[in-house]
Design goal:
The chain is an all-beta fold. The chain is built from no helices and 16 strands.
């Protein structure tokens, strides 16, 4: 059902449409497609407010999911793409780059308990160089692969002591400097995220 302006028997200009499934759209149209600014509401309570291009979410917008999570930023071809901030209902926040609905590129991820990761992502996982900090002052600054510490990195303890080491699949393999800490996969030197 559509209520709005028509041009040459096509939806064009401002109008309101309700689909058979109950999805509600109000906003601009061109050649029977959502085009320009608009608001779309789904029956589960999710809402998108932003730009459309030829029927797809393209440009800037805000998406609010029924669970309370929100994304504000860029869209392309109906997907989260470009720069934006995603806030989960449980308090986690990611501010950074996206590619096809996944974190990809530089970004900052903050957990509600104060943990923080700042660095590179690939396919929704920490990948490349990044810094992971804990609320007690500990810090890992180094390489990541497939979401885990992997490669050379620097670990700073809560008391400020710094050590350089090598990690594999999230566990410390060895220290590369000459400190007196224990060798092996001591879990206090892994992020477990």
């Amino acid at each position: 059902m559509y209520n709005g302006t028509w041009v040459n028997n096509e939806r064009s200009g401002n109008g309101v449409a309700v689909s058979e499934e109950g999805t509600f759209y109000t906003g601009e149209w061109s050649l029977n497609l959502r085009h320009g600014n608009g608001t779309e509401k789904w029956t589960d309570g999710a809402v998108y407010q932003g730009e459309y291009l030829e029927g797809k979410k393209v440009g800037r917008g805000v998406f609010r999911w029924a669970d309370g999570s929100t994304y504000e930023g860029e869209f392309n071809e109906n997907m989260i793409q470009g720069k934006g901030i995603y806030k989960w209902a449980d308090g986690r926040v990611y501010d950074g780059l996206w590619k096809q609905n996944k974190m990809e590129g530089e970004g900052v991820f903050i957990w509600e308990d104060g943990r923080r990761y700042e660095g590179q992502y690939l396919d929704d996982k920490k990948h490349g160089h990044g810094k992971f900090s804990w609320p007690d002052g500990r810090l890992y600054d180094g390489k990541w692969y497939d979401g885990r510490q992997h490669g050379v990195g620097t670990y700073t303890a809560a008391d400020g002591r710094t050590r350089q080491g090598e990690w594999a699949e999230g566990k410390r393999v060895k220290w590369l400097d000459s400190g007196n800490s224990t060798q092996g996969g001591d879990s206090k030197y892994s992020s477990r995220v």
